[in-house]
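The material for today's practical consists of a large collection of protein records. Getting from the letters to the tokens is the skill we practise here. To make this concrete, we reproduce a full record directly below:
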Amino acid sequence: MTNRYAEVYVLTRSREVDRTFHYKLPEGRAAREGTRAIVPFGAGDTRYEGYIAGFTETAPVGEDKLKEIIDIPDDFPSLGARMLHLIEWMRDRYFATAADCVRCAVPPAVRARSGMREFAASGSPPELTAEQERAYGFIKKKFDAGDFKPTLIWGVTGSGKTEIYLRLIAEMLGRGKQVIMLVPEISLTPQMIDVFAARFGNLIAVTHSRLAAGNRYSEWNRARTGGASIMIGTRSAVFAPFNELGLIIIDEEHDHSYKSDMSPKYAAKEIAGFFNAFYGTHLVFGSATPSVESYQAASAGDTDLITLTERINKTMPSVTVTDMRRELEDGNLSLFGAGLRAALAENLKRNEQSILFLNRRGHSTFVSCRRCGFVLKCEDCSVNFTYHIHNELLMCHYCGKTARNPANCPVCGSKYIKYFGVGTQKVERELTELFPECRVLRMDFDTTGQKNSHEKILSSFRRHQADILIGTQMIAKGLDIANVTLVGVICADISLNMGDFRCGETTFQLLTQVAGRAGRSHAAGRVFIQSYNPEHYAVAFARDQDYAGFFEHEISLRRQMDYPPFTKLFQITFGGEDERRVIVLIYKLFEIMKYCNKNSRFEMIGPAPEIVRKVRKNYRHRLIVKAVDEIKLKNFALYCVNKLKEHEDTSGVTMILTPNPE
């Protein structure tokens, strides 16, 4: 007997119908797993898009009660068995609906087409250094041996990791395989495209969130049909529909942007790990500042480690840390310390370019003393308080503890204690007052809202149409501009005080990465890091460009505090327009967890408001659970959430479940 019925995922966001439904197959129409189908659904037979997950010879109800698929469009390709497997895995891993997972994996089903990008493949490859040759040869041997253990390339900034990537990709293409190349920032994509186009011509396809829907579909379809063999892009590029995927490379693997902040809250590194584990896809991570978790995995032998200790030009930038407390004592109330101000003036005279990096992330502000550097901290969680300007309260966003903002510093008695926050516009304004003749570009959220704005700003700076580029995190990594010889870090302390146990790691990474933008060509580079807390280990190790020393210090702290990678975290976020109801329900969940945790195997942290408490009229509060065993942690959290749903009306309140939150 042939398969008579199709099992179809109907793409509705409702969790209540997040399963397959049986439909009759249209007479004479061919279909296979992963094929798109238009189906009638619900009492009114509303037309919905769906995907065929499989076929059966029987159905749970009589044939007279089954509906028939309306259409199987010929213009839309099959997802394929691998992608269906991934979608099922993501549903379980990220507690998302099949519809949400499909929307990650497939671009909008538009009919627009864009012409294929044609490139001329801008020279011969450069000669490899001894370290590059060793790294390339090591991974190539793994290809030959069918050794699929992931590889971490830890290389200082400017050590030539990109050239190793290019050689590995060429090797994989020669074996008839396809490659995904992930970069963390949209701003890096045009630079990477230029490099890859020069080597591989029109074999590359590109995808990222700022690309027009029609272009995204066209690039995705080129990958599906064999028109491209390399997909370059941000985290969504990991879903490229390659049938012969042989290698995934994740550049700047430590970057937080590889984790989605919308449902499903997938991590691109975990998706890559799925392909590595289930389909024998080689996996290479690269970074000058690997995440603590990745380096710990390498230390434990779960990942192979390759090190690149020297820059291609053999010269690391000189790094000076300016103690802004001393600047204040000397009467300097400016954003610019004397050393950075003098260096900027000198660079302008030399006709060399400078980058000013404002170490600001999100909406987090904190309270610190500008005289002694003291920062108010939650003693229970070992993270800094976040300042809330609307009620002038300090709050720990891990456990919810609050405190009053003091009028004077508890340590030195100074009146210079207040919340800390500086924007790029203020930096630009003060800079142009100091140097009226300088040409300034700003790269931040306000200036990058338009299509291709990242590319236009960086292209203009690369052509030396500006002397100084001011920016936030998007300029901290990956940029390679030959004439940049000076980098200044304004307010290095901001990311030190985000109210997160990872703030030391984040600060070290940002400072080390942005320092690496200086002196990448022939001229020597200089870096000035301005800090009110220059003794902090993250600042000190960044000054010395000492990742190994930083890691040993950080991993010791994580072990003492029982934070990842020694434990796992699971976050439950409640959201809704009625904040009182959100709070009542999350506290009821907390009480259920306390009751079910009689053996104290799990630790609850919170509940507490999210750092950004209100988004689009929705109030958000979170509860974090911590445990050593990830599977038991997941099962405990799900059990307690289901118990809450059994006993309480949760309508109107959303629940987002996030394993391993960033």
Q: What stands out?
A: The domain at 318-365+421-557 is CATH 3.40.50.300 (Rossmann fold). Residues 109-121 have pLDDT under 50 and may be disordered. The CA atoms of residues 408 and 573 lie 35 Å apart.
